[in-house]
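Intended use. Records such as the Indole-3-glycerol phosphate synthase entry shown here are meant for training and evaluating sequence-to-structure methods. They are not intended to support clinical decisions.
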Amino acid sequence: DRPRGFAAALLQATAERRPGLIAELKRASPSAGLIRPDFDPVAIARDYERAGASCLSVLTEGPSFLGSLDDLKKARAATALPVLRKDFILDPWQVYESRCAGADCILLIMAALTDERAHEMLQIARAIDLDVLVEVHDADELQRALALDTPLIGINNRNLRTLVTDLDTTLTLAPTLPPDRIAVAESGIATHADIRHLAGAGASCFLVGESLLRQPDIEAATRALLGT
């Protein structure tokens, strides 16, 4: 199955002057516990697609997030949207595994990787047509990420050590990105006002999950988030 073009879908959204939404599917998280007991990846993915999401993100990590590659496969098969595999990708074999499972993009977290390993994994991903979202939380990680040849820079508003979320992280870092990079704000985004606020600092794309998954009507909540 050919990759669907994760970065291209986000670039198309920004070219059309609309928020590039990466809508996330996850059952649980260390900070929130169980988020959605009636978790149905097919129904949720279709709700997101109907509401205007540009891409999907699927948690495949098991111990902390109760996710699996099966969730990713189901969500991707149910929609035409490109899909990010959201996991702790630490070893090159996981890059190949992601492609085999149908992922269109992988997440590389700079806090968890050496520069050498991040570069190695990026090269493998590019060789097998996977896009890469590189995640940072502070200015030092951002400088390391900018040395990698990928346009997608995820700015995580959640401190992975304390689990505290602060939108000021994006407000501080996004304006410092060069124009050839795409700032993806992650975590703590709940309203259309949040998106407008972060967009003012230069974020054009937004990864949102928990605030949508807690709503009874996910499609309506996603439309409200996008302001449509």
